[in-house]
C-alpha cells in the first residue's frame, strides 16, 4: 500500500519539531527570555477494569510515550511553550499537541539539582493512527500535570526525570453486526507517566 | 516551605491509587427480537383504514397519479395526496399487518400481508376497499432483520417483534482491530430501505412508479414479486382479481426487481441477474453480473446500468462505489467504470441526471451524459438520504428524518418543495 502524503508530511513535521531545538543550542542568557527545550521518552502505566457486573476482569497496561516541550524562559523559573508528543496506546496512536508550562519549584542547597512542576493541556489528535476496517478513532482532550527533577548546571544541558499524571480522552466508532444500528466507544486513558530525557 | 514540597511529592503517588484506571464505555443501539405468534385469522382481520398517522419507520415509497404511498414497515401504508408536491396531505393510513411492498395498476393497489397478497380498490384513495386476497402464497420473509414464517398445520404465524435497545458496557479499551464480520450470522438479511428506481418513462401508463428496493414489479399482465430466493408471478389480466401463477427460483440474497423494456433486472447481494421477459409468463435467465457481497441497488437507462455498492449493517463488505455497467449485450454485461462513493444507498436516473443517496452524507446529483466521465453537479448535505424517485422534474427523496420533495428543473440546484417529518423509534 502506498503511504499517504499527509502521513509523510506529519511525520516529517514531527521529526522537525524534535530537531529544531538542536539548532538553538547555546543561546542562554540569564535574564533575557530565551528558548528552552525538554525532550523526554517514557512509559504510561495504567490498568483497565472491564466486563459485566460481577464478572469483571482487570488487566494492566504499559504504553510508550515520547514528547518534546519547546518554550520560552520568561524568568529564571518559568517557561511556557508548546508540547508535542506521541502516545502509543494499544488501540490508538495519538499525537497530543498541548500548551505547556514548566516551573522550577526548588533548587535544594543551590546544587545542580532542580525540582520542577509541569502542566500540559491540549488535544490529542489521531492523525497518525491507522484504523482497521469499520473503525474510526478520533482523539480528544488531554491534560497532564507532573513533577520532576533535572540534574546539571543551569547553563548546560540537563538530565531530566519526571513523574506525571495523564488524562487523555478519545472516541471510536466500531463496526456493526447485523442487528446493530450504532456502536460508539468513549475512552478515557488515565495513566501515570514516568519519563527520562534531556533539557537545556 | 520544604515540608510543602515534600507533601507534594508524597501526594503524587496518590494518582496511582485513584486515577490510573482507563475507563472505556461502549454504547450500542441494536434490534432485540422477541418471538410472537399470530393466527392467520388475526392477520387477515387486521386490515382497516385508520386516521393519518406519523411516519415512524418508512419503508418503500411508491407513487401513482399524484398520490404517494409510503410503507410503514410491517404496519401498513400511508396514503398521501401529492397532487401539489409543495403541500402533500396525508389522507389516511391503511393498516395491513405484515406489509412491506406494494404496486398499483389502474385503481388497484396490491400489497403483501405476511403470507397473503391483498388487492385494494383505491378509486377513492381516502377509503381503500379490500376486493380480493390470494391466500397463503408467501411462506416466509423478514422485516428489519426479524424473520416470520407460516405454520400450515396450526394455521399460525411466527414472527419476531423488534425493539430498539441501547445499552452501555465497560470495555477493555483495546478493540481496534480484529473485526468479526466473517462470523456475522444474519448478514444475509436486508433492511427495508436500499433501493432501486426504474425509469418511469418505460413503465406502462397505468402502472405506478416504485422507488425503494422494489420487490414488486408490474409488467404486461403480470405482477412479479420476489422473496429472498424465489420470484412469484401473479396473473392480473383482471386487475381486481389477481391469480397465483408460476414460481421461479432465483438463488439466494435477492433484494430488488425492476422491469426495463422486456427485461427483468434482479438485484441480489452477490450480483445483478438479468432475465429475459419476452414471454412474461416465464422469465428466463440471460446473465449475471457478479460483484463483491454488498448491497447493490440498480438503475437502468438505455444500454447503461448504474449499480451502487455499499457496505453497512445488513450488507457486509467494505466497498462503497458506483459501478457503471454496459448492458448493450445482455448476455455479457461489462463494467465500464467504477466511481468512489461515500456510502451510496438508493439511486434514480432521469437521463442525463443521476441522483445518488449517500445515506448520512446526503444527496448527490450527477451529470451522467458520458458514462466514462460522470460529473458531480450538486451535493446536498445536512439530511439523511436513503432513496429517490425522479419523476416529472420532482424528486421524491426519503431519508431517516423525512420525505423530501425537490424541484430538479435545474439539476445543479435542487429546490426543496416540501418535507414530511419522520419520527424514528431510535436516534440513529
What does this structure look like?
The complex is a heterodimer of chains A (200) and B (428). In chain A, 10% of the residues lie in helices and 62% in strands. Chain A has one helix at residues 5-23; strands at 34-50, 57-73, 78-88, 93-106, 113-125, 136-138, 140-151, 158-173, 180-199. The longest helix of chain A has 19 residues, at 5-23. The relative contact order of chain A is 0.18. Chain B has 428 residues and is mainly β. Chain B has a single domain (31-152, 187-421), classed as YVTN repeat-like/Quinoprotein amine dehydrogenase (Methylamine Dehydrogenase, Chain H). In chain B, 5% of the residues lie in helices and 50% in strands. Chain B contains three helices and 34 strands. In chain B, the strands form eight sheets. Chain B has a six-stranded antiparallel β-sheet with strand order 2-6-5-4-3-14, with no helix packed on it. In chain B, strands 1-13-12-11 form a four-stranded antiparallel β-sheet. In chain B, strands 7-8-9-10 form a four-stranded antiparallel β-sheet, with no helix packed on it. At the A-B interface, strand 1, strand 2, strand 8 and strand 9 of A face helix 1, strand 1 and strand 13 of B. Strand 9 (180-199) of chain A pairs antiparallel with strand 1 of chain B, so a sheet runs across the interface. Chain B: It comes from Spirosoma profusum. Chain B: This is LVIVD repeat-containing protein.
Amino acid at each position: 500500500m502506498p503511504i499517504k502524503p499527509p502521513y509523510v508530511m506529519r511525520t516529517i513535521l514531527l521529526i522537525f519539531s524534535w530537531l529544531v531545538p538542536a539548532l538553538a543550542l547555546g543561546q542562554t542568557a540569564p535574564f533575557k527570555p530565551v528558548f528552552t527545550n525538554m525532550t523526554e521518552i517514557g512509559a504510561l502505566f495504567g490498568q483497565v477494569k472491564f466486563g459485566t457486573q460481577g464478572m469483571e476482569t482487570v488487566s494492566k497496561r504499559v504504553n510508550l510515550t515520547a514528547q518534546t516541550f519547546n518554550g520560552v524562559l520568561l524568568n529564571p523559573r518559568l517557561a511556557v511553550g508548546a508540547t508535542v508528543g506521541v502516545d502509543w496506546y494499544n488501540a490508538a496512536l495519538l499525537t497530543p499537541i498541548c500548551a505547556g508550562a514548566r516551573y522550577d519549584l526548588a533548587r535544594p542547597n543551590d546544587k545542580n539539582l532542580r525540582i520542577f512542576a509541569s502542566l500540559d493541556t491540549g488535544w490529542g489528535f489521531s492523525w497518525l493512527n491507522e484504523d482497521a476496517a469499520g473503525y474510526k478513532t478520533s482523539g480528544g482532550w488531554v491534560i497532564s500535570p507532573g513533577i520532576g527533577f533535572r540534574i546539571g548546571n543551569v547553563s548546560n544541558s540537563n538530565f531530566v526525570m519526571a513523574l506525571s499524571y495523564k488524562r487523555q480522552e478519545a472516541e471510536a466508532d466500531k463496526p456493526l453486526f447485523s442487528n446493530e444500528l450504532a456502536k460508539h466507544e468513549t475512552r478515557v486513558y488515565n495513566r501515570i507517566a514516568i519519563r527520562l530525557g534531556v533539557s537545556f | 516551605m520544604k515540608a510543602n514540597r515534600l507533601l507534594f511529592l508524597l501526594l503524587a503517588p496518590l494518582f496511582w491509587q485513584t486515577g490510573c484506571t482507563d475507563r472505556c464505555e461502549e454504547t450500542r443501539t441494536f434490534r432485540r427480537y422477541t418471538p410472537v405468534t399470530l393466527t392467520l385469522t388475526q392477520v387477515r382481520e387486521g386490515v382497516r383504514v385508520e386516521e393519518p398517522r406519523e411516519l415512524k419507520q418508512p419503508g418503500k415509497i411508491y407513487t401513482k397519479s399524484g398520490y404517494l404511498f409510503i410503507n410503514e414497515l410491517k404496519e401498513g401504508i400511508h396514503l398521501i395526496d401529492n397532487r401539489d408536491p409543495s403541500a402533500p396531505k396525508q389522507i389516511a393510513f391503511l393498516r395491513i399487518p405484515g406489509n412491506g411492498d406494494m404496486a398499483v395498476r389502474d385503481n388497484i393497489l396490491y400489497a403483501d400481508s405476511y403470507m397473503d397478497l391483498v388487492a385494494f380498490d383505491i378509486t377513492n384513495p381516502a377509503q381503500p376497499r379490500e376486493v380480493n386476497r390470494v391466500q397463503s402464497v408467501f411462506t416466509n420473509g423478514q422485516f428489519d432483520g426479524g424473520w416470520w414464517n407460516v405454520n400450515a398445520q396450526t394455521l399460525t404465524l411466527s414472527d419476531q417483534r423488534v425493539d430498539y435497545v441501547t445499552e452501555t458496557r465497560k470495555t477493555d479499551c483495546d478493540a481496534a482491530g480484529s473485526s468479526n464480520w466473517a462470523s456475522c450470522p444474519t448478514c444475509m438479511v436486508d433492511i427495508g430501505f436500499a433501493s432501486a428506481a426504474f425509469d418511469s418513462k418505460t413503465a406502462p401508463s397505468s402502472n405506478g412508479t416504485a422507488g425503494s428496493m422494489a420487490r414488486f414489479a408490474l409488467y404486461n399482465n403480470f405482477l412479479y414479486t420476489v422473496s429472498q430466493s424465489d420470484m412469484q408471478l401473479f396473473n392480473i389480466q383482471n386487475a381486481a382479481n389477481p391469480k397465483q401463477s408460476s414460481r421461479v427460483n432465483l438463488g439466494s440474497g435477492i433484494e430488488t426487481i425492476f422491469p426495463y423494456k422486456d427485461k427483468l433486472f434482479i438485484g441480489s447481494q452477490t450480483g445483478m441477474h438479468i432475465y429475459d421477459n419476452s414471454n412474461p409468463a416465464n422469465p428466463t435467465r440471460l446473465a449475471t453480473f457478479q460483484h463483491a457481497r454488498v448491497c447493490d441497488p440498480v438503475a437502468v437507462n438505455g444500454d447503461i446500468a448504474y449499480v451502487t455498492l455499499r457496505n453497512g449493517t445488513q450488507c457486509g463488505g467494505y466497498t462503497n462505489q458506483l459501478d457503471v455497467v454496459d448492458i448493450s449485450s445482455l448476455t455479457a454485461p461489462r463494467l465500464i467504470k467504477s466511481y468512489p462513493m461515500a456510502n451510496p444507498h438508493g439511486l434514480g436516473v432521469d437521463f442525463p441526471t443521476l441522483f445518488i443517496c449517500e445515506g448520512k452524507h446526503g444527496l448527490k446529483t450527477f451529470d451522467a451524459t458520458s458514462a466514462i466521465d460522470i460529473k458531480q453537479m450538486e451535493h446536498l448535505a445536512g439530511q439523511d438520504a436513503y432513496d429517490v424517485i425522479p419523476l416529472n422534474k420532482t424528486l421524491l427523496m426519503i431519508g431517516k428524518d423525512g420525505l423530501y420533495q425537490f424541484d430538479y428543473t435545474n439539476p445543479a440546484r435542487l429546490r426543496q418543495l416540501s418535507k414530511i417529518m419522520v419520527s424514528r423509534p431510535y436516534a440513529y
